[in-house]
Amino acid sequence: MINAILKKVFGSRNERIIKRLKPIVDRINALEKEFEKKSREELLSLTKKWREELSRIPEDEEKFKYMDKILPEAFAAVREASKRTLGMRHYDVQLIGGIVLHQGKIAEMKTGEGKTLVATLPSYLNALAGKGVHIVTVNDYLAKRDAEWMSPVYNYLGVSVGYLQNQMEKEERKEMYSRDITYGTNSEFGFDYLRDNMVFSKEDKVQRELFYAIVDEADSILIDEARTPLIISGPSEESVDVYYIADGIVRQLQKEKHFKVEEKTKTATLTDEGIRKVEEIVKKTTGMKEFNLYDPKYSDLLHAIIQSLRAHHLFRRDVDYVVKDGKVIIVDEFTGRIMPGRRWSDGLHQAVEAKERVKIEAENQTLATITLQNYFRLYKKLAGMTGTAETEAAELKEIYGLDVVVIPTNKPVIRKDHPDLIYKTKRAKFEAVIREIEKNYRIGRPVLVGTNSIEDSEYLSRLLKKRGIPHQVLNAKHHEREAEIVAQAGRLKAVTIATNMAGRGTDILLGGNPEYLAKKELKERGITPEKVGEEKYREIYEETLKKYKEITEKEKEKVKELGGLYIIGTERNESRRIDNQLRGRAGRQGDPGESRFFLSLEDNLLRLFGSDRIKKMMEMMNVPEDEPITHKMVSKALENAQRRVEEQNFQIRKRLLEYDEVYNVQRKVIYEQRNKILEGEEFKDEILGFFEDVAWELVDSFAPENILPDEWDLEGLKKTLEARFGFE
After folding, report:
1. CA distances (Å), 512 to each of 450, 538, 542, 669, in order?
2. Residues 214-256: pLDDT tens digits?
3. Using CA atoms, how far apart are residues 571 and 453, in angstroms rounded to an integer?
């Protein structure tokens, strides 16, 4: 009650923050006319002046204070450069987003509010310090696209831009890091940091110090991906034969009788009967008279059997991984993307390879590792942008010390979010989804269907083919075409099925994307700048673009009349935030749109985390299979299930961070000492100090103070000193 009264009088915390930023926005707006009159040379001289001022300030904290002072002018300069080069003017809400990012916070901005353009404001301002700004994206495609798209703004103001790509060689990487602003993925930045701390010469390092980072899609990178540490590994000498043996044994075991699996925690255990069965199989195949599975010398086999049970019964093909070109490739559970080069640790990947009968790669040994949490905490200042972070605000604050500020939308969101429809079975649910798609397709309304796995998206695709409904499938198997499919998902009669990846970073424009269509046509006609020259290409492109703008504008009006993009979710995700992201694909920039989730009691979330009470209640209600239930109790149970999973996942991330904290202390000390050696610092005194410490430790263990000198083991001390230091 008291909170509600206080909120009415003072407004929410978020409203108060936005209110405090308004005067800064007013100052930037007041400078607009003045900056419109400035020539490019005058803008470049401002960049030069600010760089010089900042270079004279030694302390980072003082640099940030100076940036606060020049922020209105710097933002006015970026806005003017953007108007002149891209024809795009930053709205007031985008200026607020830019200020929040400069302050080292998370700016929550809805889809279609122009996050890429917002990032130019704090990036330019912080790049003036000359220490480099990193903009972290979710994939290589977006790193390249955003860097190339925004580079005219930066270049106009005399600031250099680069981007990282997975295949880049060391020299090119070094060049990209030397630029004022560098775009790249979290794994590129993180792995370069680890590799830099393994080099034998400082010339081989590619990164500079970690100064300021803006994380795009911050929730995905700082939360979802934070469960997987970055690991650089090298080949180990261990044989892979044990995985073939374990696979052969596991294929002969029966579930429940010989082993049990726990889906919630993804664990497997052998029963007493299962242990006897394994011992029996081993004795039979090897001719051994005696065999005890729990004998320490067979611990490798026991471990391989447990991993093989998990591989066979908890990890599913086309859900958790795909098999491509004879290799097992992990599918990211949150984005639906395939992750080539990533491997499960602890023998699990080898167990899955044995299950799929592909070549088993030897398990690697870890050479260097860091969690994403600890990597991002190395930056002097960290900020992030996302469409959905408010539900995870507590975690972002606890782990990274980041506040979340919700930025108002430029135009109000008018999307309608309908209540969930819940069916008894998956089959009934998918039938209802198909009927809903067909109904909208017939009237020409675009539909985007979100699924949780490749398996589901391909099942839906087969059902649509039977009905003769043309559609596009976007999942881990087809992500090369991702941007193209997403760009056209808002056209008339477009039906798009997507796993969670649903093209983050690519806006779905109602009526289609004219730039994309124009570029596609020129590509098909074989027209390139190399063939016809830059000027001629630009001329043809402008002409083609004009044609497509007219087409898409007409389509957009028709789609709006039909109610805009319709989003269908086919299963709740482990996090409410990911559900909200899917909904947020519709209703961008004040466009109309609708969303609805179709669920079933057989969905993983309800099956594993829902209560038995729901199932019993449904039996009592005697609902026919093909009729949905809309009952408050079921909706409440769903919310509770999601909260339970979110809490469980938070605990996993927290534990991972706690384990890494021990390594982190050691890592910092070792990397610091390494860097001193690489920088050629005088190390003689420190090394002599180490000798002294070791010598005293040995003296204490062979000749402790608390016993009589007659009892000291001087002979043992002499031998150990000879062995340790190599002298008599």
Report:
1. 19, 21, 17, 54
2. 998 888 888 877 777 888 877 776 778 889 889 989 899 988 8
3. 10
Residue 343, phi then psi, degrees to nearest 5: -130, 145
Q: Look at strands 267-270 and 259-262 and give their pairing.
A: antiparallel
Q: Rounded to 5 degrees, what angle do the CA atoms 155, 159, 165 make?
A: 85
Count the residues in the chain: 728
Please give the structure tokens belonging to residue 341.
């080069």
| Domains of the chain, each with CATH number or no CATH | 11-231+373-406 (3.40.50.300), 240-362 (3.90.1440.10), 416-635 (3.40.50.300), 684-725 (no CATH)
Residue 361: helix, strand or coil by DSSP? coil
* Amino acid code (one letter) for 589: Q
Assign 3-class secondary structure to 499-538. CCCCCCCCCCCCCCCHHHHHHHHHHHCCCCHHHHCHHHHH
**Structure tokens given for 711:** 């009892």
Whether the CB-CB separation of 101 and 214 falls below 8 Å is answered with: yes
pTM flag (> 0.85): no
Maximum alpha-carbon separation in the chain: 101
**Cα dihedral 279, 282, 285, 289 sign:** negative
From first CA to last CA, the distance across the chain in angstroms is 81
What kind and span of H or E run contains 473? strand 472-474
345 vs 81, 231, 326, CA distance in Å? 48, 10, 19
d(CA 305, CA 242): 9
Which residue type sits at 612? D
515-572 pLDDT tens trace = 888 888 888 888 877 777 777 888 888 888 888 888 888 888 888 888 888 999 988 8
Please choose, from the candidates 684, 700, 694, the residue with its C-alpha nearest in 3D space to the C-alpha of residue 726: 694
Asked if 138 and 185 count as a contact pair (C-beta separation under 8 A), the reply is yes
Rounded to an integer, what is the distance from CA 140 to the centroid of its chain?
12
